[in-house]
Specification:
- The structure is a single chain.
- The protein is α+β, with helices and mostly antiparallel strands.
- The chain is globular and about 50 Å long.
- The two termini are 14 Å apart.
């Protein structure tokens, strides 16, 4: 019965994601086709989008285009549960403990590939993240890892990632992350990532952060996350990779907390 329940939840994830994929035109994606323009903006309220990705070789180009429906499985062709990524791609490595939350010994590990300039990432952060922290991370059920995946289509996303990484060295990543998402519309127009982060930190803290963020020393760390994401075939943000008992479930887009809650509980019920 547990297997049937999990299959039902997984199919629900696919159906919800497929419906929203065709209903929403503004997802942020990278694809192997050059010269395309940025898609329309994400609607202000996104209920859910959670389509399992097929495991395959990551795209080698980083230009942008509107996502093609053919790239996602339909309910009719999907298996009874999300397809696992091959074992060689499912190991969780290169974890920055300053950008990870909860216990490493939690039964479920979740890697969230995110872009600070992505509206859908902001939506996930503001609607699902805190509930996930309260109910799963802080109760030692989920080990949550932030992964930087700045898209080439966003002029300031890599700069923002540097600032948050630098702030994390002072134990201030949560403050930097929150102010960037809360004020995303402003700094993505002005490019003032520095001023946005400075609005919530002290002058002394900003002096230390600037010394690191304005250089290129953090680029290698960020690029490790990008390479890891491509190993999972991540081409859109946010993408969440859920690991449980040797299985890996990639979920694309803004996941409604109720849907995620149901799926996580079904996984945990298999213990």
């Amino acid at each position: 019965m547990k297997g049937r329940h999990l299959a039902a939840v997984a199919i629900a994830l696919i159906v919800v994601g497929t419906i929203l994929f065709f209903g929403l035109g503004g997802k942020h994606e990278q694809a192997a086709r050059s010269g395309a323009e940025d898609a329309a903006g994400i609607p202000a309220r996104v209920e859910a989008a959670s389509v399992p990705l097929a495991a395959s070789t990551a795209p080698t180009t980083t230009t942008t285009t509107t996502p093609a429906p053919a790239a996602f499985p339909s309910p009719a062709s999907a298996s009874s549960q999300p397809a696992p990524v091959p074992a060689q791609a499912s190991g969780v490595t290169d974890v920055d403990p300053k950008r990870a939350y909860g216990s490493k010994n939690a039964p479920i590990t979740m890697e969230v590939f995110s872009d600070f300039q992505c509206p859908a990432c902001k939506q996930l952060y503001k609607t699902t993240n805190q509930l996930l922290l309260d109910n799963y991370v802080n109760t030692n059920k989920v080990y949550l890892i932030h992964r930087d995946f700045p898209l080439a289509m966003h002029a300031y996303s890599r700069i923002a990632a540097r600032y948050v990484r630098a702030a994390s060295q002072l134990g201030k990543s949560e403050q930097a992350e929150k102010v960037l998402f809360d004020n995303q519309e402003k700094w993505q127009q002005s490019g003032d990532v520095d001023g946005t982060v400075a609005s919530v930190l002290s002058s002394a803290e900003m002096t230390k952060i600037r010394a690191v963020a304005k250089g290129t020393s953090l680029d290698a760390v960020i690029e490790k996350d990008v390479v890891l994401g491509k190993g999972y075939n991540v081409n859109q943000t946010p993408t969440t990779i859920i690991h449980y008992k040797g299985q890996t479930y990639p979920v694309v887009g803004v996941v409604n907390y109720d849907v995620l809650h149901s799926f996580l509980d079904q996984l945990l019920s298999q213990r």
